[in-house]
Amino acid sequence: MSRKLRMAMVGGGKESFIGPFHRRAAQITGRIELVCGAFGSTRHRSFEGGEDLFLARERIYGAYRDMLRKEASLPDDVRPDFVVITAPNNLHYPVAMAALDAGFHVLCEKPLTTSVDEVQNLGRKLDDKQRLIAVAYTYTGYPMIRQAQKLIRDGRLGNIRRVVAECPQGWLALRLETAGNRQAGWRADPRRAGPSGCMADVGAHGAYLTELLTGLQISAVSADMRACVAGRQLEDDGAVLFRLSNGAQGVLWASQVSVGENGGVRIRIFGDKGGLLWELDNPNTLTVHALDGSSEVLRFTEPVTALTATPPAGRTDCLCDALAYIYNQFADGILAFDGKRDPAPIYPSLAEGVRVVAFVDAVVRNTRPENTEKWTQLAM
Amino acid sequence: MSRKLRMAMVGGGKESFIGPFHRRAAQITGRIELVCGAFGSTRHRSFEGGEDLFLARERIYGAYRDMLRKEASLPDDVRPDFVVITAPNNLHYPVAMAALDAGFHVLCEKPLTTSVDEVQNLGRKLDDKQRLIAVAYTYTGYPMIRQAQKLIRDGRLGNIRRVVAECPQGWLALRLETAGNRQAGWRADPRRAGPSGCMADVGAHGAYLTELLTGLQISAVSADMRACVAGRQLEDDGAVLFRLSNGAQGVLWASQVSVGENGGVRIRIFGDKGGLLWELDNPNTLTVHALDGSSEVLRFTEPVTALTATPPAGRTDCLCDALAYIYNQFADGILAFDGKRDPAPIYPSLAEGVRVVAFVDAVVRNTRPENTEKWTQLAM
Amino acid sequence: MSRKLRMAMVGGGKESFIGPFHRRAAQITGRIELVCGAFGSTRHRSFEGGEDLFLARERIYGAYRDMLRKEASLPDDVRPDFVVITAPNNLHYPVAMAALDAGFHVLCEKPLTTSVDEVQNLGRKLDDKQRLIAVAYTYTGYPMIRQAQKLIRDGRLGNIRRVVAECPQGWLALRLETAGNRQAGWRADPRRAGPSGCMADVGAHGAYLTELLTGLQISAVSADMRACVAGRQLEDDGAVLFRLSNGAQGVLWASQVSVGENGGVRIRIFGDKGGLLWELDNPNTLTVHALDGSSEVLRFTEPVTALTATPPAGRTDCLCDALAYIYNQFADGILAFDGKRDPAPIYPSLAEGVRVVAFVDAVVRNTRPENTEKWTQLAM
Amino acid sequence: MSRKLRMAMVGGGKESFIGPFHRRAAQITGRIELVCGAFGSTRHRSFEGGEDLFLARERIYGAYRDMLRKEASLPDDVRPDFVVITAPNNLHYPVAMAALDAGFHVLCEKPLTTSVDEVQNLGRKLDDKQRLIAVAYTYTGYPMIRQAQKLIRDGRLGNIRRVVAECPQGWLALRLETAGNRQAGWRADPRRAGPSGCMADVGAHGAYLTELLTGLQISAVSADMRACVAGRQLEDDGAVLFRLSNGAQGVLWASQVSVGENGGVRIRIFGDKGGLLWELDNPNTLTVHALDGSSEVLRFTEPVTALTATPPAGRTDCLCDALAYIYNQFADGILAFDGKRDPAPIYPSLAEGVRVVAFVDAVVRNTRPENTEKWTQLAM
């Protein structure tokens, strides 16, 4: 019979944005329990976070390394099954490496790492340790994204010609990072966020969805981006022209300073037989355009499992539901785990994480002041 | 210091539609734990439901009366704080009465009862037992509904003239109740659903929101409704003209057979100074029209508590978030409970439950074949 | 070979709302020329109106009776082919009667008359005079309305169960009629507008479209309406429950005081096989819902004639294009006229005009203070 | 007193797309009359076109040069006031030059010319001949575009940071140009359309609106574009990164092959104080976002003149209304003409035409296969 899985968390404390999403997603599956965590950058913050969650004091840790060491030594029926990493970007790599070393499976927030070198090291570590890894590319959890992927693979759009992706937000239009906003604080700090701001944080979704949906790879980019807010070190707005492996062209816009935009990821894909629109504002519908001028609006109405409690009447899910699909798939993977990592799981994993790191890396290289070349190839 | 509250559940088993919503809403608050339940109409179904939730076998019950008796006798730090009722409509009244008798607070799905007599009895029982009761009028949990209520109370629309409410669904366009669909089964059965079909099930939301938002009472109704699907005993579609206490007029349409409609509750309210639109399809926005022809679109962007994990960027919540607000308010009420029931709590309670029962009762009386009078007054 | 048709106009002067629409619609056809008119309620106003249109002074008239007499005596190649009536409602009947007596065809704004008696007289006059008559139910000119009519006739929605129509405006939310607004002036004056305000002015569209699209007749109505604005004599807001000849139920809301509503006629029709939405805000699309949960969005992309200049790329037409279709059909009728009136032309004509007059009459009777009966049958 | 203006037309014959728009726009003003034309590329086609318009045979011409010579010699009260050019792009320049030489004012479809050299020559000719010229950048005629321009000039958005423009169509997704479609025929033919396909045809609108609305100039471009349809010679899809004179960045996507897109020009502009959206699908509304998370929706409700017959209730105009504003402004200019050309008229004129020619020229140079430089400066 099935059992409840045990989850350890790194990051996700009191003022975390993404931490609560992960906890809700885990809860939604109905079969994952948070058992321990290192929730903050200080001992005090971590305990504050853990107590809000009614965790036993002895399983709240001031430092993730302490947690990994201690928890790894616990008996089989107490020890966590996996570690979820919701700390700032710069910690994704060291925590993931340490968690794998300690023998845990890992579910990591995106981006998997902040550099190509790191992501290559992580790949080698996975080969070595043979554990499972998932990356929280949340939108892949939306059923209509999977439906879109299937439609395109089945040829409904024909040969892909054009992709238009946008990932605009407006919440960083002011310099919140020096006004005490912790979310803005680490996102605008290259030491914690890595070499890219809005491209790594939100543009990555557009790149990832492009490859996932079309089944093609982004081969080269040409970009323009900058920090619009005075004094900010990382770009908060930019656009990318890209080429796909079949010669199709794409354009992606990402922003954190576009006042009035509320994080509405939107992707349109056009082929020689049709076009398609998916947008986060209506995540349970998918619009498919045909050459004859008509359009079909497909709606998600079936819950994948009763446990996800997706309303049968087709009401709009929250982001947590999408993330819960990934947790569910990862939980299936863990329960079926036979000692060897799955090289091509259904949830986003190493391969997908690598592609996005390579995309962001190429965009950053292309937009360096000293570069005058139009196109930059992806490194991997 | 705060503590986790304990919840007992009646109904909400394996094929329940609304049960998982309640469990998720409770989880979202981060401070309510499901500890026991009588989940189904048979002993077998109840255990199946409880085991899926990883509950201990000794706290899964075949019958709600057994649960109430047994759990009431448990020590203070184990005994549930309240009972949530998610069984079919006909059970709301007897379970609520029994739970109050056993000394529990109650959170009940709508409608509170299926008749005026019952709801009056329940009122007397509450006076007698002095316990708390909440009714799951979920939409009242949406922050923008509260915002709309405040705007109107502050006079932004002026004197209210006209209400237009619609609550259309299409999922019962075929006769699912004889095709093994359990949700359709009880909803189309007068013994379990009560004397009204779509009006009690979905139209009630329109009536409730009308009174909540305008601060006025529905005084009389004139309606037309019927079972469109051959062989069905309860109305599955209908419309109601209504009068409000200030002389304003309203119209409400409810349906379960309108193909293509996905449960999108929509309410528009017009006064002599402005107009207002709220719709479930965009629950975090509120559109307010002014006499000069411009409109303002207000957006919900602040999470009420970090625990609800509402994304700061304003992404669409799911229905569970709205319900979680009610659970949160109810939890506050329980923790603050001093032995006397709160006669006017912030969450929907007895008074609101009574109004909707009276509305449905008046609509049913108005549409009886023998009635030829245009208007029917509400009984309470 | 074809020739340009000559049009005489009654009403439509300097401050007219609907007059310019008719002139544009006639121009769009490319084959109708305005040659004379009696444009206003005084000699001065009429000349002012005519001179703005660069008409020759001798063909501008101070009174419509003078125009009809004089123009009827002109030679064949100068005399108008038809008279268009865009004066206030109370003049529709006398002008139409006089124009038919003078031997002209007539294109009349809606409503055809302001009473059942008048419309019956007009019917007899048409039988007597054997001339053509069109009524400007403009929305029937939209290609997607014709497409919707065809879809329903072809059975795509199955047996019709429910109609929801709305015709809301907000421009009369203040008492403009006493503030010098001429449009408001006659519309709020029972001597010029007739016994009904918003129902005759805008609600009529909903009633008309219901019958046109479903192919069914409205058999009875039950309504609630009133003048919301203090001092106004005619109702400016109201709702109607109605029954269709097959037992289907409908609801119609019309308003002139709903702040923020911009005249967006919207109609939804549901049957046992599907549902359908058309709305004036997107007049060139038609949404058709199927039982499987998917929807099809049909778009109008083909211009009916090059002369109407509808953009091939499917851009939104203005109301004038819809009206131009009616003018075009009427022009075809005139050119093909062989001395006998067409009893069932493609453009809206006597039969359609009669139905709407009967609908408005029934609503007015149903809402008289002395009436307590729920249902009122249509007189014709 | 005012008089009717006389218009000569070049192009716009039987299968023309844009010709009927211009005739309707002229008619809408109520003060412009088409008096003669050279409507087609052959004598036969021209006469066919002119007769459909009920023009006198002697004022229909087989060749535009004949028309210009003959009409220039007519008496003052018969001779056209201006020539409108609606022929394919390659004819804009020679016809405009010849019309100016013959002493006429000119209203020309966009693009003004197909090369930088030509547009410079045309500028010199205008200095020499001192006549008026307007370019049909139709969207500038929309009242809400002018409203947006004013808002930005008044500082409502603060300092501009980001522009996102899109001009997608899908009607050339198949190779219509070899299937007898005349519109596709000349647009896909470099000899008639010039060196650019979709950028000159539709992308130009995005570039023009960017400069008009922001009051800034596009200084440099980096682009990617291609012919997606096999065998096509001109690009039918592409995207452009651009820089504005204040350092702001922009992105523009234009397409003729994006199935399901219906020509919906859309522009978003973001500054440090707010954001703004205008789209052709809702041309009479303008959405303005503020830093506090709220949005204002402004609606156009006032007709500029009664003659344009814009409905007071705010219904959607057609493209012709926007074009009619330009005709109206041009007519004002002609009536006020005192022998000297207006260097900065309110309607789009030489300066605006030059900017767009320079934009298209830079995009074409940037995307030549031999170019590897990222950025290309605009020539003028």
Structure, described:
4 copies of one chain form a homotetramer. With 380 residues, chain A is an alpha/beta fold. Chain A has 11 helices and 14 strands. Chain A is 34% helix and 22% strand. A 9-stranded mixed β-sheet of chain A has the order 13-12-11-10-6-9-8-7-14, with helices on one face. In chain A, strands 2-1-3-4-5 form a 5-stranded parallel β-sheet, with helices on both faces. At the A-D interface, strand 6, strand 7, strand 8, strand 9 and strand 10 of A face strand 6, strand 7, strand 8, strand 9 and strand 10 of D.
CATH topology of the largest domain in chain A: Rossmann fold
Number of strands of chain A: 14
Helix fraction of chain A, binned, reads 25-40%
- Assembly form of the protein: homotetramer
Order of helices and strands of chain A: EHEHHEHEHEHEHHHEEEEEEEHHE
